[in-house]
Model the fold of this input.
Amino acid sequence: EMLKVLAADGYVNYERYKGVTLTESGMNYARQIRKKHHVVENFLINYMDMDPNTAHNEACKMEHVISTDYMLKMCHIVGTPVDSDCQSCESPCKAATGTGPRSIESMDCMKVGDTGKISHIKSEDTDIVRRLMSMGFVPGRPVTLKSKLSDKGPRIIGVGDSTIALDAEMAAAIFVDTVG
Done:
């Protein structure tokens, strides 16, 4: 019965006693589900401190219910690289579509006066990630490097309407899309 439903929806070609094959639409849907799985799994491991086996099992449950919008937000947070699953993304980022160059660099490497939007936060220390996000450093927010007190010293950063001083280690965990 389910094969008939999938065939009626255009996801599979089904002939009784002859087998089943995925249609192009079915293949794209499968890629979207796989991409959601990878993004959720990476998020759970890297930001929620879940062990890989538990994260995999949870991602298997969540991949079917998470919306594409929230998956994309997670994708930007974890900085998931462009891969073969991106070709079927319903709302691909500019890196996946090739509609413009994407220059992502650590806030620590930016020059004074550089601006952009936060792409993602990445650190081995999940406390740093949580602290930065609680201060407003979240993907999509505009940021400006206002000053560097020294190479290894604090950075003065404008985020949204606020100005915040961060040490170099915390600034290095913020990745900024400096184009567009």
Remarks:
- Helices lie at 2-8, 24-47, 52-62, 68-78, 94-97, 126-134, 168-172.
